[in-house]
């Protein structure tokens, strides 16, 4: 991290030199240093060595696609109930940012089965996940969502697809009873159809939410929200697999007052 | 889960009978059933057996205090970079809801050191965490934040205190270099002082955010956000421990246009 | 206004006595008093006489329908460019709350033509508008939106209908060139179809917004947003009438990244 | 308005030629045209003639300062209860955008008394208000807020000051009983002190809100909120002048749960 709080995700190697706007860093000097220590640039600016968090690793993946935001990934991990040892299918793994968060959640004894239909994306995601140190916990597969998944009895399925409904029947077959599904979509139209198909396939406890994150500029005597924010990343839809279809009320939890 | 989507967190025992608004459930009939199966009440209403997620366990703790919301807990876990095997201090463990989320994140080889100054709260939290099945991953201690923590070199510290600044020096001593801190506070005044003290104590990469979660009522042809929402749970402040104090710009990331 | 900030909208008459939770008010004692003065109850609690604002009058109408929120009414008045002397059609006048805001904006020389298809609602709205002192600036008519409006060359049309598209062709005929239209709807589905029909009918500069209002609980040393808020009242769609149809881009102002 | 929805606020004069990214417009050709008509550029692109609304006029003022957003101006007009014939003081008139909205609200028989302490700003604001056609309804004065206002018995006072508390005593003296005050500030610290001083000066019914406006990108089959939004413009504080000071509870309307 530079003194002006720019961060760089780098591997420290012998002889490696990294250029910055505040001078060059001789990375091999960092070998043996503790995290939190200061490494000076050739222009004597103090950079701080920080251990990358999951969020750092997600945000720094090499991107071929729009990546999922950490706030959304965090809620998906929590709401699908992931923990060490679980098995989760991710369909539409894109650049692998979410794959990293899922792999971290199920490590050291679980596994992420990461499907994508685009080979170039898949290879990039695989590299990103390996670079983040989670290669052992993820298996990548080239497949269309509607062609089904190889796994059975998985704990959760996460869909990040333009047509999430294409993956719902496949997800249902792969999930164990009571298993959780999560789907991320930017438009209302996708959400509406996704929820319809989830209900048709017998999923229950369906809910859709959106998360807004607003940064606060904290400064003594003049604390205030920042001027601009990301106002939309996507809607998150969650559900659980029932073994037997019963009448569901979907997420119609309010009184009906649409006009 | 009842047909109208009420959920109950219960332990299935022989001879146990649970009353609901739709008739009684004979819980022992659930023994041997797969999750996702239907269990009928004495009035023949179909309830679905669901495996509790971390969110379910958090929301159903016996409460002596306001609990942290899942959306906030999820972001704290992600931003503090928790994963299997890590050691984390939680100060102000309250009813133990966040303790459960932290324990799940560091299991099966890590540990949560959960401090609280109120013995009654601590005992309730301990029971809640044990009931959730995470007793092996949490250690409870009765202590004031300013009296210091027993641990050294921990990966992260989470503060949920009325005066979070009371715990910052203690946190700094307990954290490893580059270790992460998170603090949750409902008021701007708390956040302002917390950020001041974090900067004084040499923390860097300080940022404060708030998360708003809005539920969407999805219903074919009449999809809309729900009418009312929780508009504030708390501000979340994050930082990382530098070993050497350098000039920090705190979270003043915007241009200065307060008037 | 009571000492605990409850407000009552009342007409002061001789002999009138009003019961409150803090004792009775003898309203005739208020005759001749200046606004801002204190009137005591029979139990000696101090109530303050306040002149009702437009917002007060809107919020206190006798309701037969869901009323429009002041924040939305305010934006409609601004974005339709209303001012003294203008003529505006309101279709779906409901309980007349918005009618009051529109009448105030065009008084003392303009007029609101308030259409509704429900006679009972219309009579209630008429009474509410008269009680608010704006009877001279509003004309009520019983009519379905698709049956057309009697006026021509009006400055603006405001639609508050379950099927706003039913009123768009009628609005177009009634509006002057460049005249403004506003439509309020709670669901995405309504908004989507409304915008389609607006574009088909040649409206331009179409935009849709939602307004969220969050109250702040200001208290020295513990200032924070309130816990709960109204998260959705409706989407507001605006447009302007072009005399000649040109290719419009509707409100597609972002880059296209829906998947 | 250009075919790609860029808007220009221009005065149509004989011989005037305006360059655009789509060719030149010969503005004199617009003389005698109805609003809503099409005017072609020299490159044959169709521009539409639109009558400027109050919002258009506000957004197009020549700026020497940050201007108030229309959403906030609209709520201020509504909550201060402005209407034709009222007299309102604005202190901190900046570039005059809010002055235009206030003048429109009180025209044709009311008046805005617009104070600013910066002569250059004041002259710019005066020109902006005159260009918008509201010169007759605004009077500009060079003055510090704490030096008092010349008017008495005004209906409302609007403060847009870095130190709004400097203007509260002056506002109180100028307001009629029950008169409304509004103050706009970007930081919590300003709001906190402003509310304290309002309560000390005997104002009642004090409330603070923030308005968030989110644009929706409506497009058949892929409707969604836009990606980015303005997340903060300012907090709006409102109050009413009581003639006698009584114990006030300020805006502490929630239960007290700050820890």
**What fraction of the residues of chain A are assigned to beta strands by DSSP?**
25-35%
Q: Which secondary-structure class do the elements of chain A indicate?
A: alpha/beta
**Could you spell the SSE succession of chain A in H and E letters?**
EEEEHHEHEHEEHEHEEEE
Biggest interface, residues from each chain:
A-B, 89 and 89 residues
Q: How far is it from the N-terminal to the C-terminal residue of chain A, by CA? A: 53 Å
- The strand count of chain A comes to 13
Report the uncertain regions of chain A.
Answer: 248-259
**Count of DSSP H/I helices of chain A:** 6
Mean pLDDT over the full residue set of chain A: 93
Major sheet description of chain A: 8 strands, mixed
Radius of gyration of chain A: 21 Å
Which shape of chain A, going by the Cα principal axes?
globular
Specify the helix fraction band of chain A.
10-25%
Sheet with the most strands: spatial strand order of chain A:
7-6-5-8-9-13-10-11
Quaternary organisation: homotetramer
Task: Describe this protein's structure.
Residues 248-259 of chain A have low confidence and may be disordered. The first copy, chain A, is 23% helix and 29% strand. Chain A has six helices and 13 strands. In chain A, strand 8, helix 5 (168-174) and strand 9 form a beta-alpha-beta unit. The first copy, chain A, has 259 residues and is α/β, with parallel strands linked by helices. In chain A, the strands form three sheets. In chain A, strands 7-6-5-8-9-13-10-11 form an eight-stranded mixed sheet, with helices on both faces. A two-stranded antiparallel sheet of chain A has the order 1-2. Chain A has a two-stranded antiparallel sheet with strand order 3-4. Chains in contact: A-B, A-C, A-D, B-C, B-D, C-D. Chains A and B meet through helix 1, helix 2, helix 3, strand 9 and helix 6 of A and helix 1, helix 2, helix 3, strand 9 and helix 6 of B. Strand 12 (228-230) of chain B pairs antiparallel with strand 12 (228-230) of chain C.
């Amino acid at each position: 991290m530079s003194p002006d709080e720019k961060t760089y995700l780098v591997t420290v190697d012998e002889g490696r030199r990294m250029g910055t706007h505040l001078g060059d860093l001789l990375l091999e000097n960092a070998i043996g240093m503790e995290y939190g220590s200061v490494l000076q640039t050739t222009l004597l600016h103090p950079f701080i060595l920080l251990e990358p968090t999951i969020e750092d690793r997600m945000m720094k993946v090499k991107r071929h696609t729009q990546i999922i935001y950490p706030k959304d990934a965090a809620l998906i991990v929590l709401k699908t109930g992931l923990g060490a040892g679980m098995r989760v299918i991710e369909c539409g793994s894109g650049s692998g940012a979410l794959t990293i968060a899922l792999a971290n959640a199920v490590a050291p004894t679980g596994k992420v089965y990461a499907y994508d239909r685009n080979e170039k994306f898949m290879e990039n995601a695989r590299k990103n996940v390996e670079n983040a140190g989670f290669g052992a916990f993820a298996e990548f597969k080239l497949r269309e969502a509607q062609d089904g998944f190889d796994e059975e009895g998985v704990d959760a399925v996460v869909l990040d697809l333009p047509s999430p409904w294409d993956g719902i029947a496949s997800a249902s077959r792969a999930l164990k009873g009571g298993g959780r599904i999560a789907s991320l979509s930017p438009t209302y139209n996708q959400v509406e159809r996704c929820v319809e198909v989830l209900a048709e396939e017998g999923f229950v406890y369906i809910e859709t939410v959106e998360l807004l994150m607003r940064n606060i500029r904290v400064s003594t005597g003049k604390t205030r929200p920042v001027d601009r924010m990301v106002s939309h990343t996507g809607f998150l839809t969650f559900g659980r697999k029932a073994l037997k279809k019963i009448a569901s009320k979907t997420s119609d939890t309010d009184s009906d007052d649409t006009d």
